[in-house]
Amino acid sequence: MRRSSGVFDTSYLQDMMVFRTKHHRIGLVGLTAAFLMLPLFCGQFWLTFISTAAVTVIALQGLNILSGYCGQISIGHTAFMAVGAYTTAILAGRFSVPFWLCLPVSGLSAGMVGILFGLPSLRVKGYYLALTTIAAQFIIIYLIKNPFPEITGGAIALNVPEVTLGGFVFESEAHFYYLILVLTLLMTFGSKSIMRSHVGRGFIAIRDNDIAAEAMGINPYRYKLKAFFIGCFYAGVSGSVWAAYARVISPDDFTLTNSIWQMGMLIVGGLGSTLGPFFGAIFINLLNEICVVSGPLITSWIPQMGAQLSAAMVEMTFGITIVLFLVYEPRGIAHRWEILKESYRLWPFSY
Amino acid sequence: MINFIQLLTIGLSVGCIYGLIALGFVLIYKSSQIFNFAQGEMVMISAFLAWSILVQLGAPLWLGAILVFIIVGTAGYGLERFPLRKMIGQPILATIMVTMGIAVFLRGLSILLWANNIGIKFPPIVTEKTITIFGIPFSNILVGSLLIVLLLVVLLSLFFNYSRTGLYMRAAAENHQLAQSMGIRVTRAIAQSWAIAAIVSAVGGFLLGYLRGIDSGLSQIGLVAMAAALVGGLESFKGAVLGGVIIGVAETFTGFYIGHGLKEVIPFILMVFVLIYKPYGLFGLKRIERV
């Protein structure tokens, strides 16, 4: 991490701190306070917006570890979300398991399934691996839809009982906002910590060159499977929270399109940075909302465009956004943010 | 028994169309090392386009086909200029996501232009009747599409083995730098392969649209064809066709004997098994990496 001149580390503890300077800490406290007070000021719409984005952020953090840091491309991430969501729905719905237990169990089950579909990564990489994850997407959704409809609800929606924690019932939008906010912070902290440990460094080594990593004593198989486990654990937790929040889930919430959207968000936000998932989820969701709102407006001016305009606009802007980002800023918004911070630090000089 | 053989022929003809679309994948992969995830959407868009030209504008079949091929081919040629030329030397994830972005864009375009046309079909070109060969009844449309696909496969392999352009494209596929130093314009070869792949997928789109109606579900076929290309091995034309046939037959049989739900995932299950036991497909190039 670059720091302004005059900031030195005088102990190892200082060197390892995540929030190193006074500005960082003020920013942390201020931002946390702002987010905690948010439900007092803003309406239902923005709370829903932030909650939805934050659930996605949890999944994206996992995808970031798997694809951004470890370089194992996964285009079936929402299928693992589905595993988590259905685990929660079934455990809570049929066996009335409390939510605090459902959450980690969902993560673990998604992680296990992730390991299973990560097995081909031992032998193939690149395109071949990406296609295996697409296969995972279809196979998992098929397994949810078809063989045991009496357990999984089949293609029809499955209801999830309301969430209680120690007698407290989560019912309003604000309750869920706080729950999701805390979870997102915890999971982000977790991913940051993993990436600072030797496991995370191993992931990065494998991404950069797996053969070189193997030569340096990192067992690529074990680390790839670890990455799959951690990434899918995150997806499972995210799915579990989503099930509790949405109260009703169906296989159509977890399609290949959603997986592509998640990957797109990660790319727009910035692969391989902790902030990337936040930027990506917020940027793409905002873009989405803008399209949804502006579509009917344009149709009212130009009726020839038809009622499907906003649906078409959502897809087209997303496609163009990804392509433009990949061509002009492959490192995503997070990289721009770093540049901005740097120039702020050095202002008024350019270097 | 007759049932079995009939299923086999249906599987074969569907599989040949998969193989045809898979050829498009292999074509692009061989020339630019890009795996085109937008192939299915290209199939869908060209089917819609053909419908608009044939039915809405009322063009005759030969003119419509030429128009569609020109439009689609030009679009494929243009795609190389932007954004794919920028993707040379980029990491695999970037190339995957660029083609995915194109796919999503094309899907949006199809919603914008053709969302209100539900349940559309091409006008019948030949009257459907059953021909009996060796005592087994076949639909003449299935046999016809089988013949078209086989003809195209033969034409393409002749093109790649004997024509100058085809040889240039193969050289560019082998090694960009080496081909460039031999005086071959690599970017043009890549653009040509995209144009040919687009035209091939347009033929696939027309045949598939004729067989099962035109809707957004056609883009799913692209994913199945992708599985076919992978089963056959990404570097081999005959592998693509064979993979398509294997997948088509497997799909038809599971659809008939087991159920419709499994029919949709059987290509992917097959693909995962092939990848685990024979990672680079049946005819793919095995890449050996050493430290």
Description:
The complex is a heterodimer of chains A (351) and B (291). Chain A is globular and about 65 Å long. Helices cover 73% and strands 2% of the residues of chain A. Chain A has 351 residues and is mostly helical. Chain A has one domain. A two-stranded antiparallel sheet of chain A has the order 1-4. The two termini of chain A are 16 Å apart. Chain A has helices spanning 12-16, 22-41, 44-69, 77-95, 99-118, 127-145, 149-152, 173-196, 198-208, 210-215, 220-246, 256-269, 276-301, 309-328, 332-346; strands spanning 158-159, 164-165, 168-169, 248-249. Chain B is mainly alpha-helical. Chain B has one domain: ABC transporter involved in vitamin B12 uptake, BtuC, CATH 1.10.3470. Helix content of chain B is 74%, strand content 3%. Chain B has a two-stranded antiparallel ribbon. At the A-B interface, helix 6, helix 10, helix 12 and helix 14 of A face helix 4, helix 9 and helix 11 of B.
